[in-house]
Design brief:
Pfam families: GAF (PF01590), HATPase_c (PF02518), HisKA (PF00512), PAS_3 (PF08447), Response_reg (PF00072). It is an enzyme of class 2 (transferase). This is histidine kinase. By secondary structure, the chain is an alpha+beta fold. The protein folds into 4 domains: 2-131, Rossmann fold; 150-253, Beta-Lactamase; 284-425, Beta-Lactamase; 525-676, Heat Shock Protein 90. It is 48% helix and 23% strand. The chain has a 6-stranded antiparallel sheet with strand order 13-12-11-16-15-14. α9 packs antiparallel against α10 (305-320), α10 packs antiparallel against α12 and α13 packs across α16 (645-655). The chain starts with a strand and ends with a strand.
């Protein structure tokens, strides 16, 4: 489709021109302009392949129209109709950008299609040529940019003149200003890095001798002292006889690539090292996990403290390959740490060593807070020397049960994985120790309950026996009184009946009193000021006769300076009577009994001591104040008892604000009651 604009204000001419053009161009879009306003609007609206304008217009002239057209579209071709013989107008119009002209007359209209086609062909040729020139210019510019971007230069060594030509870019690569290279091989060789000169010489000589292509990477030193890497590619050009005449090639600055390669090599080496380290860490992690699993499997279901801790220190010592490892348990009440188990003790055995926590606060305070401690000793240890140590607490529920100590060489620093493993082992040990101790406590409770149950059974058996015996005696006495209501024998039976009734009443009273003391704090008491020197003889008298009857030696020592004692007399009498009764009951014939009362002025105490020549086994001492407890095989006179006496005594002493203690050694047992006096 040919788009054509016709600027002509003559309708007839317009018709003729259109007819001629339509005959030649089948696809023609013709638009006409008859006034200036329409011309500007049409030029601004669309782009035309060709414009035909008349020189003579009513509203303007052809040169003005030509300039308007070129102002809007400089590349649009224009043909102008001129008057015959008006060559000056045509020349002026050609200077303003007119492409061709034609004399305006009906006889010349037939030539218009030929002129249009000629102008279009010429414009197309001009356009193509311009495009080719633009493309060549762009290609050259791209080559220049490519050479510059690639940091590439070109060199040409002419052997006939022994001159080398460098492009500006080649000079820039070598750090020279444009045009400053003097063209000699020696000048080039001076710029080669001294360590690479021999290699460059050999490579160039080999290429020339073998007529082979040249390629070499080497370093150059610029005039400013900086070192660059280049790669040179060259080709030997030969004459007809096969002799080298020229040596041409390129130079590329590959410094960035070389630095990148070096960086890549370093990065590769770093990555390989990281992979090796990570693989080693992974392998170590797997080993640590296996160690942790072994320890967990062994200690998880164990209820034996020794097995738990010995397993932990041994597995840690072997798994970490350390010099020594030990486990210590804390006694927070005493403030001590005792090493109970250790691995590799042959170097410096520490088992049984006790440390006082207060003597090393810088170590044990963090451990008591559940914190890990890693340090080395500054002073040379006589056993260990200079070593690094790690202490990890066995911590559970805000309580530290003990710690694990690891000893290694002085230059060693524990890694995070090792610290995590030790902490996990310590945590598992703490849990296992807690379970073991809970189990031991439960077992102790079970044993205690079994023992209490046995004591209950014994008590019931004893009480039933003790209750039944007086009843049986009373029944026997009543039966005999029925047979013999009078006489000497009757008096004896009445005495038996009275004694057994008292015995029965005493047993029941003991039970009731003990129950009342344990369950209630409110008692009706009658406190009096007692003169012990006057009051005690009546309490002791019954036991003098009893000791004499059993051939026992009763010694009485009452201090003469005893002050008045404000006390409930009946309770004190009951305490002393029970202690003297036990002394008589458990002392064999010809054995000694000592009753002593003295004053301790410094502490304002009156001390009552009852000693008898009979020893209580050490294992039984903690239990003698328990209810229903009776020492096995300790009743030489077979008088029996309920096991309530000493329990009742302890409660009564405490009610009076005193203390009672017992010692048994060297064949003697001593009960000591201390009561506070006001004087």
């Amino acid at each position: 489709m040919l788009r054509l604009l016709l600027v002509d204000d003559n309708v007839d001419d317009h018709f003729l021109i259109a007819r001629e053009l339509q005959r030649e161009f089948s696809e023609l879009q013709l638009e006409a302009v008859t006034e200036t306003t329409n011309l500007v609007q049409i030029l601004e609206r669309g782009k035309f392949d060709l414009v035909i304008t008349d020189y003579r217009l009513r509203w303007s002239d052809g040169l003005t129209v030509l300039r308007e057209i070129k102002a809007h579209n400089p590349d649009c071709p224009v043909i102008m109709f001129t008057d015959s013989g008006n060559q000056e107008v045509a020349v002026e119009a050609m200077k303003s950008g007119l492409d061709d002209y034609l004399t305006k007359s009906p006889k010349h209209y037939s030539q218009l299609p030929m002129v249009v086609r000629s102008v279009l062909d010429r414009v197309q040729h001009t356009t193509e040529q311009k495009l080719m020139e633009d493309a060549l210019h762009q290609s050259e510019e791209r080559l220049r940019l490519a050479l510059s971007a690639a940091q590439m230069g070109i060199w040409d060594w002419d052997f006939q003149t022994n001159q080398t030509t460098w492009t500006e870019n080649n000079e820039r690569i070598f750090g020279l200003s444009p045009g400053s290279f003097n063209g000699t091989y020696e000048a080039f060789f001076e710029l080669v890095h001294p360590d690479d000169r021999n290699m460059v010489n050999q490579a160039i000589s080999r290429s020339l001798e073998q007529r082979s292509n040249y390629r070499l990477e080497h370093r150059i030193v610029r005039p400013d002292g900086s070192t660059r890497w280049i790669v040179s590619n060259g080709e030997v050009l030969l004459d007809k006889t096969g002799h080298p005449v020229r040596f041409v090639g390129t130079t590329i600055d590959i410094t960035e690539r070389k630095e990148a390669e070096l960086g890549l090599q370093q990065l590769t080496a770093t990555l390989e090292q990281q992979v090796r380290e990570r693989t080693a860490r992974l392998e170590q992690t797997l080993e640590f996990e296996a160690t942790l699993r072994r320890i967990t499997d062994k200690v998880r279901d164990s209820l034996d403290e020794s097995q738990i801790l010995q397993t932990a220190v041994q597995e840690l010592g072997i798994g970490l390959g350390i010099n020594s490892c030990n486990a210590a348990l804390y006694d927070l009440d005493k403030g001590i740490s005792t090493i109970c188990y250790e691995y590799n003790p042959s170097l410096f055995p520490m088992k049984g060593h006790i440390s006082h926590l207060s003597e090393f606060p810088e170590i044990y305070q963090p451990l008591l807070r559940g914190e890990l401690m890693q340090f080395c000793n500054l002073i040379n240890n006589p056993f260990r020397g200079r070593v690094s140590m790690l202490a990890c607490p066995m911590f559970i529920e805000h309580e530290v049960l003990g710690d694990l100590w690891l000893v290694v060489d002085k230059e060693y620093g524990f890694k995070k994985q090792e610290l995590r493993l030790v902490q996990q082992v310590a945590n598992h040990c703490a849990i296992a120790l807690r379970q073991a101790r809970l189990y031991q406590a439960a077992q102790a409770q079970v044993e205690e309950l079994e023992k209490l149950n046995q004591l209950k059974d014994d008590f019931l058996s004893t009480v039933s026996h003790e209750l039944r015996t007086p009843v049986s005696n009373m029944k026997m006495a009543i039966r005999m009184l029925k047979l013999m209501p009078n006489g000497e024998r009757a008096d004896r039976y009445w005495k038996i009946l009275e004694t057994e009734c008292d015995r029965e009443a005493m047993l029941v009273n003991d039970l009731l009193d003990l129950q009342q003391l344990e369950t209630s704090s409110n008692f009706d008491i009658s406190i009096e000021s007692v003169c012990l020197q006057e009051w005690l003889p009546s309490v002791i008298a019954p036991f003098k006769a009893r000791a004499q009857e059993h051939q026992q030696q009763l010694t009485i020592d009452i201090s003469s300076d005893l002050p008045l004692l404000v006390v409930e007399p009946n309770r004190l009498e009951r305490v002393l009577a029970e202690l003297l009764n036990n002394a008589c009951k458990y002392t064999p014939g010809k054995g000694g009994i000592v009753f002593k009362v003295c004053r301790n002025a410094a502490s304002h105490l009156i001390q009552f001591t009852v000693q008898n020549q009979a020893e209580i086994p050490e294992t039984e001492l903690p239990h003698i104040f328990e209810k229903f407890y009776r020492i096995p095989n300790a009743d030489p006179w077979k008088q029996g008892g309920t096991g309530l006496g000493l329990a009742l005594v302890k409660k009564l002493v405490e009610q009076m604000g005193g203390e009672i203690a017992v010692k048994s050694q060297n064949g003697w047992t001593a009960f000591e009651v201390n009561l506070q006096h006001s004087g």
